[in-house]
Design a protein that fits this description.
mainly alpha, single chain
Length: 249
């Protein structure tokens, strides 16, 4: 079998594992929806963002939907490494690259499903985007690129952890980071120190790019920053994951 065929086999295996794990499904798909309901109905009127809060918050919650599924990916990668699964794959002559690629692609597909469900609920709550079909294509591209980058950095974290439990904890900073961005409230409304951090951290330009595309008015500067951050994160994650995998396997 070719490396591509091996990757498809690993993808099916990992996706089935995710689908059969209720905790993974809850965190990846249902938790972002719960957060949307909570922020829109409980806190939405408290935030003065200049537009309907559901329109402001949806792009940020889309990014949160990507991050909330990462803990399961990190745990799954580490389980493969610490429980002898990798050694079985080596005996079966499975491509090593396919093992990691399968985890990343399964993570991206989970993200797509989670965001589709989130958008469905957003429309029910009154979400009214101004995006053209081309803008929506751009949103999809950003989502996939972000999922790919987050997937590789999460795989690297999972490989570096000593146990599945610590692997899950290693992904927590990635889950928390969007809350310190412009996902929930504009960065300029935050206090000193936190405002500067929110403005210059990676997730803010990614969120603002999706927000601009959804509003039909993307900002070129944010787009360049968003793509650059995603490429850098993906490259660092890939090189880190590859080096760690070769060392431990």
């Amino acid at each position: 079998m070719s490396a591509k065929s091996h990757s498809l086999v690993m993808l099916r295996r990992n996706f089935r594992h995710i689908a059969r794990n209720p905790t993974s499904v809850f965190n990846a798909v249902l938790m972002p929806i719960i957060l949307m309901l909570m922020f829109v109905y409980m806190f939405g009127d408290a935030f003065d963002v200049g537009v309907d809060y559901i329109d402001y918050a949806t792009p940020g919650l889309m990014l949160l939907a990507v991050c909330y599924g990462l803990g399961a990916t990190a745990t799954s990668v580490n389980s493969d490494m610490t429980k002898g699964i990798i050694n079985r794959f080596k005996v079966m002559d499975v491509s090593r690259g396919a093992v990691l690629t399968g985890h990343v692609v399964a993570s991206v597909l989970t993200n797509v499903i989670a965001i589709a469900a989130l958008l469905g609920v957003a429309f029910l709550l009154g979400f009214s985007p101004s995006a053209s079909p081309l803008d929506w294509l751009g949103v999809a591209g950003v989502v996939v690129l972000l999922g790919f980058a987050a997937g590789w950095i999460t795989v690297a974290l999972g490989l570096s952890a000593k146990s599945p439990e610590t692997a899950g904890l290693a992904a927590v900073p990635l889950v928390m980071l969007p809350f310190f961005s412009s996902a929930i409230v504009p960065a300029e409304k935050m206090g000193p120190g936190l405002r500067e951090f929110a403005e210059y951290q990676p997730f803010t330009p990614i969120i603002e790019t999706m927000r601009g595309l959804i509003n039909g008015a993307p900002d070129t500067g944010n787009v360049v920053l968003a793509v650059s951050w995603c490429v850098v994160i993906a490259l660092v994650g890939y090189l880190w994951a590859r080096a760690t995998f070769q060392k431990r396997a």
